[in-house]
Amino acid sequence: MPRLGFVLPLGAALLLQLAATAFPAQVEAQFARGLYPRVATGLAALTAPLPFSLGEAGIALVATYVLGDFAVLLRRLWRRSGRRRVVLAAAARRLVLLGGIGYAAFLCAWGLNYRRLPFAETSGLALRPAAVAELAGLARELVGDANRWREGRSENAAGVFRLAAGRDAAFAAVPAGSRALAASFPALAGPTPRPKAAFASALLSRLGVAGIYLPFTAEPLVNATLPEAELPFSASHEIAHAQGFAREDEANFLGYLACRLHPDLEFRYSGALLAGFYALAALDSVDRPAAREIERLRSEPVRRDIAAIVAWSARYEGPLRQAGERVNDAYLRSQGAREGVRSYGRMVDLLLAERRARTNAVARGQLGVDGG
Question: Which residues contact 185 (CB under 8 A, 6 or more apart)?
Answer without folding.
Answer: 123
